[in-house]
Amino acid sequence: MTKIGVVVGTLRKESYSRKWAKNIVELLPEGYEVEFLEIGNLPLYNEEYDANSPAEYTAFREAVARQDAIIFATGEYNRSIPGVLKNALDVASRPWGQSVWGGKPALVVSHSIANLSGSLAQFHLRQILAFLDMPVLAQPEVMLANSQNLIGEDGKVNNQGTIDFLQSVVDAFVPFIEKHKA
């Protein structure tokens, strides 16, 4: 069983990021176990905690460590990633030299309710993931513009072309995981 952790970059329970992530993981083939890794309860990273980490840090690091791959789904805040997502990345990459992200294949999904499609958030997140030594699926890129129009009230993607595109993403990510997982 291949384990995929999903990190949603926003906190709102009904966020578009969470809805996109749920739609994508439903397209995974059998043999993949999905765990949504919650980030909203993590205290802000503080190096002073390295010697005696809060329980939330330990639990999150352990959750990341048990994954074979990670899907990041995020909106764009002020032309970058949300602060809560950056905090989660920092928490699981510390203490220095003990990052649990390294080597895990990743998929980045960005979206926006405007035409920018979260492209700058995606760019910044990819830079961080490169430093964290995470191979990231390069193509197809998943940047979803006007995302509120592509998801119905039931939380499901309501456009067959978008569903087909997301399936092509999953179809590319599955062999990418197998190629890169430790």
Strand order of the largest sheet: 2-1-3-4-5
**What's the Cα radius of gyration?**
16 Å
Task: Give the domain tally.
Answer: 1
What is the first-to-last residue Cα distance? 14 Å
The CATH homologous superfamily corresponds to Flavodoxin domain
CATH topology: Rossmann fold
What's this model, at a glance?
The protein has helices at 16-25, 55-65, 83-92, 119-131, 160-180; strands at residues 2-8, 32-36, 69-74, 106-111, 142-144. The chain is an alpha/beta fold.
Structural write-up:
With 182 residues, the chain is α/β, with parallel strands linked by helices. The chain has a single domain (2-180), classed as Rossmann fold. It has helices spanning 16-25, 55-65, 83-92, 119-131, 160-180, and strands at residues 2-8, 32-36, 69-74, 106-111, 142-144. A 5-stranded parallel beta sheet has the order 2-1-3-4-5, with helices on both faces. The longest helix has 21 residues, at 160-180. The radius of gyration is 16 Å and the shape is globular.
